[in-house]
Each structure stands twice: as structure tokens, then as C-alpha cells.
């Protein structure tokens, strides 16, 4: 009886010793609590990238199988303790077998990036924001709210560094397999690492109260032209017996390559004399000489003023065109018909604003003012094709709300002068004026483009004015007998304009 009791006590002491051996042993590498695993079970485990995990087994392990060695590394220092390390983002299965070949445990391991540090960094570097992060298949998803579009861009840049910076630093020349050892010290599996594919960042951030930017562009141009032309044409006919000849001194204007619009006739005359005066009897001498003066003195001025305005949300693009399109032949089809394309012209404006901070606006502006020019038109197959005079500017600048800046400007002074004349005769003093022509042309152009952005917010419709407020067409009697185009006092009972006129207003010409 005593021997039986001693046997039971010995068995109980062995069982307690085994239980104590299978107890949790503290890890030294990292403050991660060991994961105790029961016999023959499956469990899902999440592990951070480049983080370690300790797994305690209920009985001695013999072999370890890893489905994807590039994702995780398993090292066994003792038969019942396994160390897992996350190498790359992904999923893998880890199966542990005992000496009898039976499965001890199956771990469904998922290695992902630890986004806790990213969230802390975002909320620290982007103050006033509430940003949440999620990791899905090694891609970072940003959600939450930020104050401005600049904060959203800053958060995305930080997330890009987090998603791609660490992955690009991983070595990429590791092997695809590993080695296993079953020595008494345990089973060790070591593998080479591979480069993780470049991750992407999905920006789902919401901007609190997106700012709206109202842009006003002023394109002002003044052109002054002076043209002076002076020339004398001499046309004559000489007949001496059977000989007949013509004299002409119609000289072109070299500076403008065209004649003036009007020609003044100075005078004409004719003379006849007997050929005996020349010592040739029986002959007649007749001549007629006509002269014309071509003179022109022209002064012109052109003023161009365009003030397009446009409004857009911060970070979005907007465009505006007020003008038209003119046809231009671009080729022929198989049947010989002319193919027509339409080219736009007029006042165009496109811009993309970004509100950087309170009152600071970054603008990418492109503006254009174009007009049809018939002076430099060409003839093609009986079709007159006009040219286009274009003022175009594109730039990126930063301004405060309500601040103005000249984004482009030009000052041009062009002088052309030419003298055309007959050889030798045109060089004679005083009389040489009859055998030469002179023209002088000078063009001055001043162009300036001014941009002014404003931070705006919606207002009530009653606070806005329209160009036709207060306009009423004149009746038949008023238009016929008084020559008026609109009613002076408008309609009775019609509401007054919401705003008052500013600047010069009235009839458009004097």
C-alpha cells in the first residue's frame, strides 16, 4: 500500500514538472507577452513588420513548416518555445509538428505595418487635424478631417514616406528558401529577405469648410501707331517718229509694302514740237507727262481692356472663355472636300488655387486675350484666313487674399523707315524728291496683366447685382420721336438694383 502511494506521488511530481516546463517563459528580445497554444489547434496571429513574437508550445516540437518564408522567420531555441519575426508584409501559415509527426499547432500569420507611430506623427505634424490610418494589403488609407488642402497634401506626403521609405530600404537579393536544423538546441529557420513592392496611399481626408477663391485678372493694353508716307509718281509717254517709250517712277513703300489709301493729282501737261528742231525733217515729237503725289499721315490708337473673373474651390481647377471660334481649313478628305477646324479666340482664363494658410493663396494661372487680325490675313484657294493677335501668360505665384501682382507685362517700341528711289536720280538734291519715296512707321505697345485673388463665401441672392438691373427697353413712340433705346426711369414697381455703380458709366461713346 505504501509502495502504491509512493508511485502515485512520483507520477504526480512528473506531471507537475512537465506542466511547469510548459509554463510561460519571459521573452528578452521585446516586451511582447508569449502566446500560449493548446494542443492541436489553429489560431490567427497578427504581427507587426520587423516585430517579434514568442510562442510557447504544450509539448516538444520536432519540425516547423512555413508556407511563405519571405514573410516570416521562425526560430526555436528550446523544444517548446518558438520566436516569430515579421520580415515582409503579407500572410503565411506556420505548422509545428512533434516527434511523432502530429500537428501541435497551426498559426495563420498576418504581417502588417504598425500604423500607431504613423497616426501619432500625423497628429503631431498636422495640428488641428483628426487623421485615422488603416493598413490594407500594405496600402495606407487615410481618413478623417483636416483644416486645409495643404494639410491634406502634407499628410499624404508623410504617409508616402511611411509606406515606401521602409520598404525600399529592405535588401532585395535574398534566397527563396531556407535551412532547418534539428540539433539539441532547437530548430532554426533562417531565410533571405526580398524587396516589398511599392505601396500606395489612398487619401480619403475631408477638408473642413473648403475655401473658395475668386480670381480677378486685368489685361490692359494700349497701342499707338504713326504712319507717314510721301512719294511722287511720274508717268510719261514719248513718241519720236516710229519710236514710242514710257517713263514711270511709281516706287513702292518699303516699310509697309503697300500704298496709301488716297492719291492726289498734282497736274498734267503735254507738249509737241517739230522734228526740224532736232535736225530731222519729216518727223514729229509728241510727249505727255503726268505726275501724282502719294502722301499719307496717319495716327492711330488701340485700347484693349479685359477683366475676366472666375471662382473655384481650393485645390480644384476652373476655366472660362468668352469669345468665339473661327473656321480654318486643315486638309481635304478622300472626296476632295475641304476639312474645316475651328480655332477659339477671345478672353480665356483658367486657374487652380490652393489655400496654403490663413489668407495665403497659391495660384497657377493661365490667361489669354486673342483677337482676329485681318491686316495680316492670307489668301488660300480663294479663302481669306485671318491671323490672330494673342496676349498669353501662364505662371504660378503666391498672394494674400486681396493682394495684387503683375504677372506679366511688356513695353515695345518698333520703328521702321525706308527710302526707295531711282538710281542716281534719287540722290539729287531737291529734284531727287521727284524720283524717290519715303515712308516711316512707328508702333508702341504697353501691356500689363494683373491678378488679384480673394477668399470668398456665398451670400444671399438679393445682395448680388446684374448688368441688366434697372434696364427697360424704350417703347415705339419714345424710340421713334426721341431716339432713345431704353427707358430713362424704368418700370414702375420694379425693384431697384441691389448694388450701386462704381467708376465711369454712361454712354459708351461721346
Question: What does this protein structure show overall?
Answer:
17% of the residues are buried. The radius of gyration is 47 Å and the shape is elongated. α2 runs antiparallel to α3 (149-168). The protein has helices spanning 2-21, 116-125, 149-168, 476-481, and strands at 35-36, 41-48, 52-56, 63-66, 72-78, 81-86, 90-97, 103-112, 130-136, 139-146, 178-183, 186-191, 201-207, 212-240, 243-248, 264-274, 284-306, 309-313, 318-332, 338-357, 360-380, 383-400, 405-421, 436-456. The termini are far apart. By secondary structure, it is mostly beta strands. The protein has 3 domains: 25-206, Immunoglobulin-like (Sandwich), CATH 2.60.40.1380; 213-221 and 302-458, no CATH class; 464-510, no CATH class.
Summarize the structure.
The chain is mainly beta and 510 residues long.
Low-confidence stretches: 1-32, 166-197, 260-287
**The CATH top-level class label of the largest domain:** Mainly Beta
Mean pLDDT score, rounded? 73
Distance between the termini: 136 Å
Radius of gyration using CA atoms only: 47 Å
Write the CATH architecture name of the largest domain: Sandwich
Return the string of H and E elements. HEEEEEEEEHEEHEEEEEEEEEEEEEEH
CATH topology of the largest domain: Immunoglobulin-like
What is the β-strand count?
24
Helix vs. strand class: mainly beta
Largest sheet: 7 strands, antiparallel
- Tell me the helix content: 10-25%
Number of helices: 4
Shape: elongated
Q: What would you give as the CATH superfamily of the largest domain?
A: E set domains, domain 4
